[in-house]
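Structure request: Probable septum site-determining protein MinC, Halobacillus shinanisalinarum.
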Amino acid sequence: MVSNSQLVTIKGTRDGLTLHLNDQCSFKSIVNELEQKLSMNGLDHDEPMIRVTIQLGKRYLSNQQQEALREVIRERQNLVVESIDSEVITKEEALAWKEDTEITPVVRTIRSGQVVETRGDMLLIGDVNPGGEVLATGNIFIMGSMRGMAHAGIHGDNKAIVAASYMKPNQLRIADQLSQAPNYESEGVYMSCGFIDAGEGDIRIAPLHEVTRRRPDLASFERRMLNG
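Returned structure:
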């Protein structure tokens, strides 16, 4: 049995407070312990707002339970919950994550007026002709010529990329960034990739070897291809 002193651990950080909640006891016990500890730690209401991060461990909370935690903390006028983090997710969330990280192969030529959209990463084996459009919530990999419009990270993923065997697009979009005329030569660029430059904040076109150096996490694409 877990002792009350171990149910809630409060640690101060540079960014505020972190609450570690024991994941081996009842939710009611957690709430009671949290109310007691917050009431014991007297805070001056004139102090600036303090951000609170809640770590649940291997505990899952419903939206109603999360709101109950927020309410307990809101009673302290200078505390505000910034995030509630858990190591577990629901089956529905797991399925959504799987869809967002899957690679969808498309084998065709995207002609003028045609639009192809996928969830997760797109692997296009074919060309995107002028006037054609490809969109994905993740990355877009084109084994062919990119001459139309590509929009990667359409739900706001600014780490998404567009890679192509030959790059001369009408337009590139990544998340909410738009590039009408990327920095490539008039003849286009072979084996290149478009991405948002963290330093400049706009879309850059660079050789693939530079992109893999800047984005080592793209190695997961290779692992998924080998294991898929």
